[in-house]
Amino acid sequence: MRVSRSAEGAPDVEQDAGATRHTEVSDPATNERTDADGATGPGHDDAAEPHPHHAAPAVGWSTRMRQALRAPKLQYAGRTQEQIERSLLGRLHVTSIPGSRLWAWLGPALVTAFAAVLRLAYLDRPARLVFDETYYVKQAYSLLVLGYEGDWNEEPDENFAAGDYSDLQTTADYVVHPSVGKWMIAAGIRLLGVDSPWGWRISAAVVGIISVFMLARIGRRLFSSTLLGCTAALFLAIDGIHIVMSRISILDIFLSFWVLAGFGALLLDRERYRRQLAKAAAVEISTHGSLRDPWGPKLGVRWWLLVAGVCLGLASGVKWSGIYAVAVFGLYAVAWTISARRSVGVRLWVGAGALRDGAPAFLALVPTAALTYVLTWLPWWLNPNSYNRQWATEVNALADVPERAWMPDWLNSWWEYHLKMWEFHNNLTSEHTYMSQPWGWLIQWRPTSFAWRDVKADAGAMDLCGAERCAGAILAVGNPIIWWGATLALVLVIWAALRRRDWRAWAILAGYLAMYVPWFAYSERTIFTFYTVALVPFVVLALTYVIAELIGPADVPLRERRPGIWTAAVIVVLALVVSAFYWPIWSNQWVPYTFWRLHMLLPTWV
């Protein structure tokens, strides 16, 4: 397996946490034997390598730990500030991306246009509320009319679809998710009207389309390749889970959108911080010969972490599962900060990374997310008729002492509402036909059917699909080539993260740690495979990681790379073919029943 290299020749491997492997070259400025990343090689500051005919002494665990904790000694005598900065950027694995600026934007735009077609075509089918649209679309409409989620009479879906909204009551409804996603649905209803399925679903479609564009840019930055970024975006564009969830107006696509936006902001912060660190360190080294401050340079506000905090706060305001992304991405920001300090030779890199930059980084992201989440509840606080808004006041009126009486009534009522939601989510164990377990999500063991209709000849099947029996379905199942391939790819990603210390692999695993692993703690609850729409971007990045390995680095002769390139091309083409095959049952098209059966690759898909 090849180790991919960046366009500048520095290995895309995060080797900051331990001993590194270096490629020795000649330093043109000093004529010394140096490593490719700029550190002087053995014979200058480090002990010489043992003679190959003599066995090297065994290195104990404690010795290896001391070596890992020791900052590398970097010598840049005789180098200019620009040369030092370029060398430090190589050590920090910050690379320029080859290719034209035009294609950096045009490529993602073309893939996004293709994704838009798949998400907007026949968006009004079916012309009725399906699955949990019965909750979220009506709650969104209620927010527009009442300013809070009102209660509805039992089974009002047919009336709602027919334009009769008289079933809405002014009594507040007990809802178990925050309102950000519903306000986003409401924006589409306000734009296109509540009397059309287009109005119900346009917001979901738009954020799904934008997600494809964001992933193209994120993948481009992650893999230092516009082609690979567009490949990842193409996989997202044609995946069944993401297509279906972009065409159905429920909350999870909005959660996925904000988590992906937060992840993109985290990557931008990583690059911007490391560029600033390299520049500041280069200035100090070129002026004084070394870093005088054992804690390293002082840097400014990390604005992209604030942006990430806002995005993740909004994600948590859609569904509480966004909180896991806040925690994981916050820890990643600290870890990347600490490793960056070590890479530039900061002597007290652990303390400096943790205290000077790491703690502020965590505080920039996590409290910002928390504050954003709290602010999303402003409409609830401002409307006295919101559910549970007057809870503390009502308890006081009964001459009873409420719990947490030391809190202001408005805050106590809000906290009590959160306790009720927490109790609901932790006790949701009712049986459901399509409930599934997290262990089966990566292989799409039990996908969710959002809609199903079966029409036979005597009911007009011939007119619908030209067969004696027709099926109309919306099955939220992922593209098997993508999901099954990515499950295998995940093994390589984990290996690369642990063995190579490849920061790109760790970045991809952040999504799995935040959006997948926590669900194993709730396996006894009523949960569904479509929750993985928030995981899909990281699934396709894992598959793209393997594509990058197959294609190989550009400095390898084409004849050696050709087999891998052909293999990668076959994977992409197969994914496109499978997507075309499954498109009818992702988009509620009428098809012959026998054709529908061909799509049921596993018995658990029926």
From TrEMBL:
Known pathway: Protein modification; protein glycosylation
Ranges of Basic and acidic residues composition bias in the record: 19-36, 43-52
Keyword rRNA processing attributed: no
Segments forming domain ArnT-like N-terminal: 191-266
Top-rank taxon, per record: Bacteria
Transmembrane segments: 102-122, 198-216, 223-244, 250-268, 299-316, 322-340, 361-382, 481-498, 505-522, 528-552, 564-585
GO molecular function: dolichyl-phosphate-mannose-protein mannosyltransferase activity
EC numbers for this chain: 2.4.1.-
Ranges where the record places region Disordered: 1-60
Presence of the UniProt keyword Transmembrane in the record: yes
InterPro entries linked: ArnT-like_N, PMT-like, PMT_4TMC
Domain Protein O-mannosyl-transferase C-terminal four TM: 411-583
Topological type in the membrane: Multi-pass membrane protein
Gene Ontology CC terms, in alphabetical order: endomembrane system; plasma membrane
A Pfam entry, by short name: PMT_4TMC
Keywords for the protein's UniProt record, in alphabetical order: Cell membrane, Glycosyltransferase, Membrane, Transferase, Transmembrane, Transmembrane helix
Function noted in UniProt: Protein O-mannosyltransferase that catalyzes the transfer of a single mannose residue from a polyprenol phospho-mannosyl lipidic donor to the hydroxyl group of selected serine and threonine residues in acceptor proteins.
Protein name: Polyprenol-phosphate-mannose--protein mannosyltransferase
Organism phylogeny: Bacteria, Bacillati, Actinomycetota, Actinomycetes, Micrococcales
Name of the coding gene: pmt
